[in-house]
């Protein structure tokens, strides 16, 4: 039984080690919300991926905090559930806001797995003890800087390089990278920066033998992606557009793409992520685990989800030390030769660095029934 006795909300601001530029803007730090659920002497923890401004999808940090305090936590505090799925059902009537709901659901899974003394990945049905990872590289100043960044990460053993692109910065970095590295697994991510009017320009990318082109069109579109896919050879990979297993089923049935970037928070938590995974598998479409520049808590959740069998392409869950001088957890999460070990031990297998969190926290509060 899953008894929820108390909750803690914390917010920490973490400076990024690099400037991360995408088609929707430049990030130099992350504001990381954490949720801890307490029950029966055990605690489970999750990390939110919504940002202050709704640039990636529509959710915001302020909206998520308000929902946690006023709507979601009052539904679960002081209550007992049979398992994390039943707890999530208590939030099932609420529409959208999947990243906010995922904070509750993911903390419940960690709590549950710790109570059962099992690694989260095993409970989800995963079998791997390490997962293949690549890197997502932000937009660089020019071609030379792009090739330099690619070289550094290829040398570290990352198994796939993803370049962020935008209109006016697409074929040039891809061509330069492909000329320097004819054989690497290469992809691009447009974060919804194009429209169907750019079809010809996107078709020019077909010649570079990329594994997929990620989210070229609108964040809430499926239909135009299907039209675009009909004009391209390179498979499209959907990220922003997939918020549920139903979205995945619709996208794959109309041919809107052939690959899914599966982010556990974007789809509302582990149970829904597993359903997306299963739908994709039934369609013969590979999935891979995306990232949102997570701290150690979100990163550990991602690694555990990635142990499921249809995660057959390298994820974005690269080494924590790439991102942070000091992480919010005590354990290192470091890939070796492009393989990220799955933290063993119960739950997500990592523990909060409470001293560090307290020293940089912008908010800490406790909620009780
Ligand atoms: O589109 O996958 C994306 C980061 C923030 C928001 C959206 C995306 C990303 C990344 C970075 O690509 C992945 C990572 O290194 O965590
Ligand atoms: Mg993406």
Automatic annotation (TrEMBL):
Its cofactor is a divalent metal cation. Its EC number is 4.2.1.113. It comes from the Bacteria. It is an enzyme of class 4 (lyase). Keywords: Lyase, Magnesium, Metal-binding. SUPFAM superfamilies: Enolase C-terminal domain-like, Enolase N-terminal domain-like. The keyword Lyase applies. Residues 143-235 form the Mandelate racemase/muconate lactonizing enzyme C-terminal domain. Pfam families: MR_MLE_C, MR_MLE_N. PANTHER family: O-SUCCINYLBENZOATE SYNTHASE, O-SUCCINYLBENZOATE SYNTHASE-RELATED. This is o-succinylbenzoate synthase. The gene is menC.
């Amino acid at each position: 039984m899953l008894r929820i006795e108390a909750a803690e909300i914390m917010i920490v601001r973490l400076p990024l080690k690099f400037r991360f530029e995408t088609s929707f803007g430049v990030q130099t730090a992350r504001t990381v919300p954490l949720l801890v659920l307490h029950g029966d002497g055990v605690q489970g923890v999750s990390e939110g991926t919504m940002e202050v401004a709704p640039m990636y999808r529509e959710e915001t940090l302020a909206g998520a905090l308000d929902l946690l305090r006023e709507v979601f936590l009052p539904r679960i505090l002081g209550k007992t559930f049979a398992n994390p799925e039943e707890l999530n059902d208590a939030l099932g009537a609420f529409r959208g806001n999947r990243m906010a709901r995922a904070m509750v659901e993911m903390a419940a899974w960690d709590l549950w797995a710790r109570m059962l003394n099992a690694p989260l990945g095993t409970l989800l049905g995963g079998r791997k003890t390490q997962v293949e990872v690549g890197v997502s590289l932000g937009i660089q100043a020019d071609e030379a800087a792009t090739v330099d960044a690619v070289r550094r990460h290829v040398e570290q053993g990352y198994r796939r390089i993803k370049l962020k692109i935008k209109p006016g910065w697409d074929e040039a970095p891809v061509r330069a990278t492909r000329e320097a590295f004819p054989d690497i697994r290469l992809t691009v991510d447009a974060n919804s920066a194009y429209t169907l009017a750019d079809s010809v320009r996107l078709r020019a990318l077909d010649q570079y033998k990329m594994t997929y082109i990620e989210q070229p069109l609108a964040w809430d579109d499926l239909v135009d992606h299907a039209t675009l896919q009909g004009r391209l050879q390179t498979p499209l990979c959907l990220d922003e557009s997939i918020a549920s297993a139903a979205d995945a089923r619709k996208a794959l049935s109309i041919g809107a793409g052939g690959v899914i970037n599966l982010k556990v928070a974007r789809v509302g938590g582990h149970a829904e992520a597993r359903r997306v995974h299963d739908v994709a598998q039934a369609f013969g479409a590979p999935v891979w685990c995306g990232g949102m520049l997570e701290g150690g808590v979100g990163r550990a959740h991602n690694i555990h989800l990635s142990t499921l069998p249809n995660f057959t392409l390298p994820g974005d869950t690269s080494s924590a030390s790439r991102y942070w001088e000091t992480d919010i957890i005590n354990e290192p999460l470091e890939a070796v030769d492009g393989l990220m070990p799955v933290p063993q031990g119960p739950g997500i297998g990592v523990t909060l660095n409470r001293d560090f969190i307290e020293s940089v926290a912008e908010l800490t509060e406790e909620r009780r029934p």
